[in-house]
Amino acid sequence: MGESFQKLNLTNAYLFAAAMQDEEICRNVLEIALNKRISRVKAHVEQVLFLDSEFKSVRFDVYASDEEEVSYDVEMQNDDTKNLPKRCRYYQAELDVTSLRPGEDYQQLKPGYIIFICSFDPFGKGRCQYVFEEYCKEADIPLGDETQKIFFNTNGTDTENVTPELLHLFEYLKQSTEEVAVRHQDEKILKIHERVKYLKRDRKLEAGYMTMEEYIHQEAERRAKLMAETMAKPMAESMAESMAKSMAESMAESMAASRVAQNILALLEDLGTLPDQTKERIAKEQNEDVLSAWLKLAARADSIEEFQSKM
Question: What is the pTM of this model?
């Protein structure tokens, strides 16, 4: 199971999404992230449970729009799934489809921002943010489609290229405590922290988090069991086949040895009475080479004593 609800930081997708449903918190986060004034936003969260190979990924998309009809899709991302660029493309398509009514001109498409707040460096350049827009490669002309894809790296090192408030937000996201909240006395960070403290006292939210964690835990166990059974079946079949083959070969060898031993005893009966100890030794022998040699010896021997002395 994961961390207790009270100890979660805002990098946790569940807590982040819960906080961003508060439209004032959503507005403050967007203002800090985009470094622009936003008058008012409407926000809602869409939850998608997506279990990856390690059974731990839950995606919460925060959709928001402001009074200027700008659309925002914000997501906290803790696992480097290596597919963020293509996901940006998909999310932008979703925003466009929902913002344009049937019969409306393409000019009515709202400006859109796809924002990933990552606890890792998605492009490996050490930057705190990566902002992508559509440009002409040859003439450096902006396409003018009014879309941006922004990736924030909360562990970036190019701190001189971003606002101090964004760095404070990164600090608070990673360690959502009273100490960090009051450290820089940023009004927006303090407001966010007050909301986070309130959310952590909400029993319904805590219950939702526990239910989600339990589901992921159970699903992980179920998938692990299924995987083990899937892998074990061909292994078991292979082992059974191998064991059956080995047993068949062993039985065949044993039967062949028994027939040779019987032939040896039959030859020796013509020479006289064979001691029980010698009979038992011949009957128990399984080595084909030894039995073959004894068979030849029995065929050439003139007496039991000669056979025993040479066997």
Answer: 0.67
